[in-house]
């Protein structure tokens, strides 16, 4: 288990990370979210010892992180850093050997990973011939080929189309099932919701939300209500007690409630004449919570 306890880092007068405490167990995915400059990348750099924390601790199974443990960390940096004039194979095999793999096993693993992530091209191709998406896949392979126990992914979905983002999502889920400890950052809240067991949201270095994703969502109440009822208009919904805002969405309307208890009375009204195609009362999405928290925390 990775345990981060009361971690702090300042750059001059700017407090980049303030009193961060969180743990990641084997087979668990932690989503780290926040605006640009919130402290996510600084946190990753402290874990990797690229920069030194001002105070606090980072331990692996209760022991301080040493270079031996850091050798077991797979890292995908936000700033992608491949050598453009070298081949895919040369770069991947070099790094794999640095992490203790023999060349034959690394070569076989590279072939498997290129197939798995649907990389367009050959292992002998120069990196400069790759598209941005395929280069990002090679960077992901570099982070994972040596089967790390702990994986840090800084904005892994950035710039990927939905198909390739889906490949990365499936990969992260598989690694989780295999027992890896994973921490990642992303601005795509749908991805964070789908694959995270735990969530930490930072704002200006401070932790403003922390816990299991669904528990965080439920803590805001089931104030998001989607309804398809052909006999009711936006005006009708707006006039109902407890409705704060109404938005047209697809074939129906999205109602934002002052209180989740208003849902029952609305249900009784829209179903008074029988069947309606849709009625779904949910907590706010993570994206909506993110916007609320950004606006409410100074």
Automatic annotation (TrEMBL):
Residues of the ABC transporter domain: 2-229
SMART domains: AAA
Phylogenetic classification of the source organism: Bacteria, Bacillati, Bacillota, Bacilli, Lactobacillales
InterPro entries recorded: AAA+_ATPase, ABC_transporter-like_ATP-bd, ABC_transporter-like_CS, ABC_Transporter_VariousFunc, DrrA1/2-like_C, P-loop_NTPase
An MF annotation (GO) of this entry: ATP binding
Record has Transport as a keyword: yes
Superkingdom of origin: Bacteria
PANTHER family, A to Z: ABC TRANSPORTER ATP-BINDING PROTEIN ALBC-RELATED
SUPFAM superfamilies: P-loop containing nucleoside triphosphate hydrolases (SSF52540)
Keywords: ATP-binding, Nucleotide-binding, Transport
Ubl conjugation listed as a keyword: no
Protein name: ABC-2 type transport system ATP-binding protein
Residue ranges that the Swiss-Prot or TrEMBL entry lists as coiled coil: none
């Amino acid at each position: 288990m990775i345990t981060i306890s009361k971690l702090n880092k300042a750059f001059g007068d700017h407090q980049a990370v303030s009193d961060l405490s969180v743990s990641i167990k084997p087979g668990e995915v932690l989503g780290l979210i926040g605006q640009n400059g919130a402290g996510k990348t600084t946190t990753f750099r402290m874990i990797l010892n690229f920069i030194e924390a001002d105070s606090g601790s980072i331990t692996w199974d209760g022991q301080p992180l040493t270079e031996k443990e850091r050798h077991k960390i797979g890292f995908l940096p936000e700033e992608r850093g491949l050598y453009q004039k070298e081949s895919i194979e040369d770069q991947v095999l070099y790094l794999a050997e640095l992490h203790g793999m023999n060349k034959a096993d690394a070569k076989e693993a590279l072939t498997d990973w290129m197939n798995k992530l649907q990389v367009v091209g050959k292992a002998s191709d120069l990196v400069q011939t790759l598209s941005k998406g395929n280069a990002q896949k090679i960077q992901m392979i570099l982070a994972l080929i040596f089967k790390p126990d702990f994986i840090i992914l800084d904005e892994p979905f950035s710039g990927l189309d939905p198909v390739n983002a889906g490949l990365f999502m499936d990969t992260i889920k598989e690694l989780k099932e295999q027992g890896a400890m994973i921490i990642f950052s992303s601005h795509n809240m749908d991805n964070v919701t789908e694959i995270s067991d735990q969530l930490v949201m930072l704002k200006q270095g401070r932790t403003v939300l922390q816990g299991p994703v669904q528990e965080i969502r439920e803590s805001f109440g089931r104030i998001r209500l989607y309804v398809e009822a052909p006999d009711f208009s936006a005006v009708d919904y707006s006039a109902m007690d407890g409705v704060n805002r109404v938005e047209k969405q697809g074939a129906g309307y999205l109602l934002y409630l002052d209180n989740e208890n208003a849902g029952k009375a609305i249900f009784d009204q829209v179903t008074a004449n029988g069947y309606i195609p849709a009625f779904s009362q949910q907590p706010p999405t993570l994206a909506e919570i993110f916007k609320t928290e950004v606006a409410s925390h100074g």
